[in-house]
Amino acid sequence: MKKGNIMVECLTTLVLSIVFVFIQAPFQVTLAENLLKRVEIPSSPNPVGSGARALGMGGAFIAIADDATAASWNPGGLTQLETPEISAVGAYFHRTDDNTFGTNPEASGDQSVSNAQLNYLSATYPFSAFDFNMVVSVNFQNLYDFDMSWQLPLNQTLETYSLDQNLDIQQDGSLSAYGLAYSIQVHPSLSFGFTLNLWQNGIYDNKWKRTETSHGTGFDFGDPFVYESNTTDQYTFTGYNANIGILWNITSNFTFGAVFKTPFTADVKREFATRTTQRFSEPAFDSEQAESFTDYGEMDMPMSYGIGLAYRFSDQFTMAADVYRTEWGDYIYRDSKGNKTCPITGLPQGQSDVDATNQVRLGAEYLFISEDFAIPLRAGLFYDPAPAQGSPDTYYGASIGSGIAYKWFVFDVAYQYRFGKNVGQYMLQDFNYAKDVYEHTVYSSIIIHF
After folding, report:
1. N or C: which end of the chain has fewer CB within 10 A?
2. Taking a C-beta distance cutoff of 8 angstroms, is the pair 390, 415 a contact?
3. Does residue 256 contact residue 250 with C-beta atoms inside 8 Å?
4. Which tens digit of pLDDT belongs to each residue from 166-186?
């Protein structure tokens, strides 16, 4: 009899365990797991240049490119520099995601993140050789920001199962490149230049990391349990590419610029670890799942290219316009087994439908010039769509800027406001998700001439 009771108890435990596994199946695709399939770039993913002056003009800088940040915008413009200079750019941003979860309204609401970091650093030296004006420059540029911070409740209920959890998602990191730029004035009205970008660790590590922690309680067939989950997913990124640009002074007042940023394949090391536990009052029903791996894959980064026009109405007043395109359909992550995934959607390459994005940027600068100094007033508007499944998400923005130039010293500051309404719907379709994004960015630049 005793042996029979033990056998019945074992069979009961086995049956309930199998039932438990099948009951859990609908919840294996959680909000966190949806996010883990994607490479989230919360800031603008479009590859643009640096500098407070350019930011103040809405990023319409391809046909101007007349300071050291030209290495990031259009290296063909570097020949406009007449004296050696060093420059540094600091950046601060504050971003708010106003999230809406149609299936889980308790998770809706604002989530914000802020950060300050070095955006650009350069040293530039102009010289002449063989009757040509030339410039060389070394620079550092922080291009992509991955910072995000979400803390939200998430309640899930089925007929015989429920789970109330608090989810904490933290992501940080950035991608930066070290550049060696060269520019030559091949004709009095035409200059050519290139920047070789090395995406390596240095001032900042070239990596991003997402940490997701969940704690909660629930009921399974009326039995209470405690739920815990911890996941870390880290990517380290190395590679190299080039910016190639030309600047053509069509007339003394009218300038045309063009830039091409080459596609490249980066080496990516992924380190993943996850652990999930559910504890019942009866230890026999406890469950634990754990997984960890390190994978060495590759990421295909898309090419991008743009053209710009600038017109100088006088020594004081200039207007500029840029059009820029990035081929996001070529953005692919390939793991060590050869599986190809779209980092934007998290879907296999064959199931993703991501179009290229086309930016439009307009800007103007007016200089108040005195005998000893000059004070600029800048403003800009831009359309800056983000890649998404089906069609790009729509983002707009505006900027203003000013500063002072005194003898060998130049200081600039700029503020940019970027926003998107009802975007990100492709991210978490199981949750009927969308968000409004509000981003505030401040750049400050210092340039010292020698």
Report:
1. N
2. no
3. yes
4. 999 999 999 999 999 999 999
User: CA 50, CA 89: separation in Å to the nearest integer?
Assistant: 8
Residue 162: how many CB atoms within 10 A of its CB? Answer: 14
C-beta separation of 305 from 25 below 8 A: no
Helices (H), 37-79: 52-56, 70-73
Which amino acid, residue 114?
S
Q: Which of 382, 257, 384 is nearest to 309 (CA)?
A: 257
Give the whole-angstrom CA distance, residue 140 versus residue 145: 15
The pair phi, psi for residue 407, each rounded to 5°, is: 55, -115
Dihedral angle at the C-alpha atoms of 254, 89, 196, 299, nearest 10 degrees?
-110
Alpha-carbon Rg for the chain, nearest whole angstrom, is: 26
Q: Which of these ranges, 10-19, 235-244, 371-380, 437-446, has the smallest mean pLDDT?
A: 10-19
| Token representation of residue 45 | 């993913």
Using an 8 Å Cβ cutoff, are 448 and 408 in contact? yes
Distance CA 4, CA 217 (A): 34
Cα–Cα distance, 266 to 143 (Å, whole number): 15
Exposed, middle or buried by CB within 10 Å (0-12, 13-18, 19+), for 394? Answer: middle
Q: Which residues contact 5 (CB under 8 A, 6 or more apart)?
A: none
Helix (H) or strand (E) holding 246: strand 223-249
pTM, whole model, 2 decimals?
A: 0.88
* Residue range 125-130: mean pLDDT, rounded: 94
Contact (Cβ atoms closer than 8 angstroms) between residue 318 and residue 365: yes
Asked whether the beta carbons of 66 and 54 are under 8 A apart, the reply is no
* Model confidence at 25: pLDDT above 80: no
- 3-class state of residue 158 by DSSP: coil
pLDDT tens, 305-345?
999 999 999 999 999 999 999 999 999 999 999 999 999 98
Tokens of 175: 């991608």
Which string of DSSP letters, residue by residue, matches 39-108? ----S--S-----HHHHHTTT--TTT--STTHHHH-GGGGGG--S-EEEEEEEEEEEEEEEEESS-GGG-
Please tell me the distance from the alpha carbon of residue 364 to that of residue 95, in angstroms, as a whole number: 26
